[in-house]
Every structure is written in structure tokens, then in C-alpha cells.
Design goal:
By secondary structure, the protein is mostly helical. It has eleven helices and three strands, in the order αβααββαααααααα.
């Protein structure tokens, strides 16, 4: 028996597919195709598409259809700036109150991430971008949790049309894995040494890593479908 999905569930599926770049910038999303796929009428599908447009994932163009938006680097950079500013303060607070158990949790999170990273060399086909990203974030989440600032954390990592896709693009091919592993280890060392002065420089390097790694490639033919000339402004 077929179980119909709610509008919220359909929205979440499409949002995830756009964020995971399964549906890429410039792709046209067909109402007819979605109606057939989810076995639902046009009215709820149009509601979902309008919600995606409100959140910046698509643009509904009269007589053309629903088109997935390009990644706007300027907005992605602002989200990175916001996260860096907040996380620097949270990490300082965490260092002041963290317990040996909290430190152990961070080491465990790093060990879990290392196991996923090792697959790049041992079994590249088994490397999962989503698993790597989720596990990566789990370490950062610890200092927000310990300082009782999870509400801020959820706001910083909620799905966002530009930043969420940008950081995922940085993981493609495992390009960011060596840097992430090295910088996470440095974060642990900073925490254990209570080196407050080193927090901001390292977090800036860590969170802006994607901009540094991709650099001029953002303007290359390979990335044209992700970034239009106006979206890089």
C-alpha cells in the first residue's frame, strides 16, 4: 500500500537533494515529474516549490519553470563569518569549563572522523560525504552543548541555500579531508593547552578553508554550473 508523504516530508527530501547536489544549480524542477514521483496533486507540490523559493533554493520563473539557484559566494562567506564570530566565543567559554570527560568526547569524535577519512585511501568508493560532514560537525557541537548554547548551534548549521551547498562542494573528491583532520587535531591541542590566543586564527583558517582550497577554481569551467558570475559577487 502506498503511503502519501506530507508536504513537509516532500520539502525535506527536495531540500536535501539540492543541498547534496543531487539536484544541481540550473536544473529545472518539473511539477509534473514531482507529481508523478510523489503521487500527489499539483497544489501541495506548488506549495513545496514556493517554500523552496522563499528559502533561496529555487527560483520560480513564469513560463520557464522552477530553476535551482546558483550558489552565491558572497552570502556563503557571510554565513562563514557569522559562524566564526559565534564559535570563537563559544570555544573560549568551553575551554574555561570543560571537564576531562568533555575532552575525552572530543578525542572520540576525532577518532570517528579519522576512520571515515581513512577510507579515502583504503576504499575510496566507501567514502561517504554526508557521513564525513555529519561526523565533522559532531566535534564542534560538543562545545556548544557543554556551554548550553545548542540553540545557537542549530541555527548556525540549519540547511541554507548557499553555505550548505558550498561546504559540500568542498568535500567532493575528499579535497578538504587532510586539512580538516589536521585542523581538528590542532583544535584539540589548543583546548588542552588552554591557548585562547590561538582560537581565532585557527577557526578562521578552518572555517574559511573551502574558499582557500577552491580559490581561482570557483571561476573555472568545472564550476560554472555551481557559480554564475553574479553569484560570486
Amino acid at each position: 500500500m502506498n503511503i502519501s508523504l506530507t508536504s513537509d516530508e516532500i520539502y525535506e527530501i527536495l531540500e536535501n537533494e539540492i543541498i547534496q547536489l543531487k539536484i544541481q544549480p540550473g536544473d529545472v524542477i518539473s511539477e509534473n515529474t514531482l507529481c508523478k514521483r510523489f503521487q500527489i496533486s499539483r497544489t501541495p507540490i506548488r506549495s513545496v516549490l514556493q517554500r523552496l523559493q522563499q528559502n533561496g533554493f529555487v527560483q520560480i520563473v513564469p513560463h520557464k519553470g522552477t530553476i535551482v539557484t546558483a550558489i552565491r559566494l558572497k552570502l556563503a562567506s557571510q554565513w562563514i563569518f557569522q559562524r566564526m564570530a559565534v564559535e570563537c566565543m563559544i570555544l573560549r567559554d568551553f575551554i574555561n569549563i570543560c571537564s576531562p570527560t568533555d575532552i575525552a568526547r572530543i578525542h572520540y569524535a576525532q577518532e570517528c572522523l579519522q576512520k571515515i577519512a581513512d577510507r579515502l585511501h583504503k576504499a575510496p568508493e566507501a567514502f561517504d560525504i554526508n557521513e564525513f560532514l555529519v561526523t565533522d560537525l559532531s566535534m564542534h557541537r560538543i562545545w556548544f552543548q557543554v556551554t548550553d548554547k545548542l540553540c545557537l548551534w542549530e541555527n548556525l548549521v540549519r540547511p541554507q541555500a548557499d553555505y550548505s551547498r558550498f561546504i559540500r562542494l568542498d568535500v567532493v573528491g575528499g579535497r578538504n579531508v587532510p586539512d580538516v583532520m589536521k585542523e581538528h587535531q590542532q583544535l584539540i591541542e589548543i583546548i588542552e593547552a588552554r591557548d585562547f590566543a590561538a582560537i581565532e586564527p585557527l577557526l578562521k583558517r578552518h572555517l574559511y578553508g573551502g574558499v582557500r582550497r577552491m580559490g581561482s577554481e570557483l571561476f573555472s569551467e568545472e564550476y560554472q554550473r555551481f557559480f554564475t558570475s553574479s553569484s560570486r559577487e
